[in-house]
Amino acid sequence: MSVPGAPLHRLSRDRVLTGLIGGLARFLGIDPGLLRLLSLILFIASILVGAWILVLVIYILLSALIPREDDPEDVRGRGFVIDIGRIIYSLLSLLFLGIGIAILIYSIALFAASLGAHLALLVAPPIALAGLLGMIISIFGVIVGILILWIGMIMVRKL
Q1: Is the pTM of this model over 0.70?
Q2: What is the pLDDT of residues 125-135, one digit of tens each?
Q3: Helix or strand or coil: residue 10?
Q4: Gap between the Cα atoms of 106 and 110, Å rounded
Q5: CA quadruple 28, 31, 32, 36: dihedral sign
Q6: How many CB atoms lie within 10 A of CB 141?
Q7: What pLDDT does residue 154 have?
Q8: What is the Cα–Cα distance from 135 to 132, expressed in whole angstroms?
Q9: Are 158 and 96 in contact (CB under 8 A)?
Q10: What average pLDDT does the chain have?
């Protein structure tokens, strides 16, 4: 639910990863789903231009600095406190998520390229063999990407 003018907090009830996007959406008075979609587009675009680490660092810092709404033990709402262990754990979990997504994107692109190489079977058989090898590598990449993504999601859920 969008509540313009609400204090800036991470939401525990309306969260996917750390509750940051839900809290920002409530603070800005916009739909959380729309802001999540925009942030996902931003992250995918940052992967394509090679700046995904910067986006992850900004997300982690904001998650570490903005207090959670309904956590009575969270003293950041009363002052400036940084838990280094939590930041490192957040960084590792989001790094796993980013690596998993990147591997999935590149593996799907390799799979598409290898399908194109299979079409060249009649013209140049060695290209088709390279396409088959690329397809096998891409399937392995998808499996590894899903595994790393799953590990990252488990780590984020423990935050």
Answers
A1: no
A2: 566 566 667 77
A3: strand
A4: 6
A5: negative
A6: 20
A7: 76
A8: 5
A9: no
A10: 73
